[in-house]
Amino acid sequence: MSASSIPAVMAALAQNITSTPELVDLVTVVNGPPVEDVPGDVLAIGLSRDTAGAFSTKEWESLATQRETITVTCMILCWSGDSDITPLQTRAFNILDWVETGLVRDRCLGGVAATSRISNVNYLPARAPEGAEVVVEFRVRIDSII
User: Fold this and answer.
1) Residue 2: what are its φ and ψ, rounded to 5°?
2) 77 burial via Cβ count (<10 Å: 0-12, 13-18, 19+)
């Protein structure tokens, strides 16, 4: 028995997102924080500006079975050198739409989860002298049996 299925779920979620063909040329996907400068838009799995990257709760279903509900926070960052928010907003939510499409195609994340879905979305636009940015943080809720 595993203490948590977070590692397996994080790997399966990353695999699901990077396997969504529509996202390949649209965004750079990283599991955790980027370790180098990334040109263009970024989707970071297990990363947030101010909350936990992943957390879980567990309940016993029987003497030998636990249900674990895992929430993975993800962050889409789109930016440009100008001040127009609208195209960034469109790009960020287009990326989110494709993430949801990938989850609909395989809610069980290759057999690691009982189900998965996007549960919360936060929209955070900003303007600075360097240009505009849009951050869309979202949470993926994953139910698994451990």
Assistant:
1) -95, 145
2) buried
Cα distance between residue 97 and residue 105, in whole Å: 12
Domains of the chain, first to last: 6-145 (3.30.70)
Task: State whether residue 21 is helix, strand or coil.
Answer: helix
Note the Cα 65 to chain centre separation in Å.
27
* Cα dihedral 100/102/105/110 (nearest 10): -120
Burial 124-137 (b: 16+ CB within 10 A, else e): eeeeeeeebbbbbb
CA atoms within 13 A on the CB side of 120: 10
Instruction: Compute the CA torsion angle 135, 113, 145, 74 (nearest 10 deg).
Output: -10
How confident is the model over 85-130, as pLDDT tens digits? 999 999 999 999 999 999 999 999 999 999 999 999 999 999 888 8
Question: Per residue in 7-51, pLDDT tens?
Answer: 899 999 999 999 998 888 889 998 888 778 888 899 999 988 877
Q: What is the pLDDT of residue 70?
A: 92
Which of 129, 100, 130, 127 has its CA nearest to residue 116? Answer: 100
